[in-house]
Amino acid sequence: MTPEEEIMALRKQVAELTEMVVYLTKKIYGQKSEQIDPNQLALLEGNDGVFITPEQPGQQSDARSSTGKEKAQKDTARNPKS
């Protein structure tokens, strides 16, 4: 194979590989079929939205914290520390 033929073969291979990279990049990072439901955005809008102020780290809602306390009390009653 002459140097010119080798250059042409390598350029063809580079073109094929570049095409594959473009295809795979679109496949991985391209537009997804997931759609945003407009009703979900209402949760974030205005003062009547569900998520007005985020809880700070260490804070829990009342329902969850009382359940945790009750469970801890039950666990302590079942397995008292020695």
Automatic annotation (TrEMBL):
Pfam families attached to this UniProt entry: LZ_Tnp_IS66
Region (Disordered) residue spans: 47-82
Compositionally biased spans, kind Basic and acidic residues: 67-82
Name of protein: Transposase
Domain Transposase TnpC homeodomain, residue spans: 16-80
Signal sequence, start to end: none
Bias (Polar residues) ranges: 56-66
